[in-house]
TrEMBL record:
Molecular function terms, GO-annotated: metallopeptidase activity
Residue stretches making up the Metalloprotease TldD/E C-terminal domain: 231-447
One GO process term, biological-process aspect: proteolysis
Domain of life: Bacteria
Protein name as catalogued: TldD/PmbA family protein
Pfam name, any one: PmbA_TldD_3rd
Domain Metalloprotease TldD/E central: 121-224
Amino acid sequence: MLDPHAARDRAAALVERARRAGADCADAAYIADSSESIQVRLGKLEDVERSESEYIALRAFVGGSSASIGSSDLGDAALDELAQRVVAMARLAPEDAYAGLAPGDCLATGPHPELGLVDGDEPGPADLRALAEAAEAAAREVAGVTNSEGAGASAGQGVFALVTSHGFAGAYATTSRSVSASVIAGEGGGMQRDYAWRSARHLADLPPPEEIGRLAGERTVRRLAPARLASGPMPVVFDPRVGGSLVGHLLGAMSGAAIARGASFLLGREDEQLFDSAVTIIDDPLRLRGLRSRPFDGEGLPTAHRALVEGGRLTGWLLNAAAARQLGLPPTGHAARGGGGAPGIAASNTHIAPGTVSPAGLIADIADGVYVTELIGHGVNGVTGDYSRGASGYRIVQGEIAGPVAEFTIAGNLIDMFRALTPADDLEWQHAINVPTLRVDGMMIAGD
């Protein structure tokens, strides 16, 4: 893996090759990552894994046509061939009126913000094994836990570099650290499983492994002997570890590409009161040590803190350069680069601002409801907003969390769900999408 400076230089050299081969303009992205993970089960080492990948992608434009190509071979001969081939491909490609590099006057200029994305202390295999063993031991010590699916710890690092032919060059490095545990409670047909998992840029930002393991064990034991729910409408309360999926559906529908295709349930609703006026949803790519923080986007545009929903209303779409041209709007710095091909669209660190009521207060007036801790399946229609997913969790009876329930489906429409959404005040920063406990009234339950 190249360091950020060398990665930027390599991408710049590839862009220059494309220009010499006849491209009118071009950009190149270098993407590399490596990770090492340790898995233990029942106190014994079960698996050691290390993976590394390195990839450079070139996108070239000839007139109104473009092509993309990539390679894991970064040698000079390979890059020479890459540049020649992508230009030849672009000359044969159909024209696209919306394709092109981001506007030059919108590009980020250095120095790029320092976001603390690199942990200078690299844990070794022995350190990772100790973390995994501590997490599993704590989980197995919880009364009622009968078996283990294992615990793991991992450490990774990555480098991203982007260079364009019209003046942008940038690169940054990242690290990742994670600890997880998954255990089983009960016997035979009554067995239940659950897990706990945390990830961060810095090891110091993770809870102690014993806390992660204990949480996994406690969650598992609480699921024993689940009952069934009766079918009908009732309030649904989403635990923070699953409530973030609702924001994920919103972000997908806010993608400029989906709007331009007419394939979003938000189409034509940009001026509507989508949420209660107290709801605010923030996208913050500049959050220090954030899991999706980035100093610039996948096309070289600056990134910035933005309220996606303010006063319950959308503030606009998420746009890369192509979607912005198609919709006649300025790009928003949400271009995302994966492997080859044109940039996609993605948000960064996103959260729903906390409300003013505690989780206990949020459910206090629910006579009969359900608290969801797990969602199953992918029954969400991004075009209509229709929502139907399998779930499990706990009954809410007379304002209190009661026994576990399983094998039921929750259904509604995302537009109606957003309008009925109320956040609690217990927001914590644990994931790329963070939400407090969320209550949605009027959902349909399909149970017995």
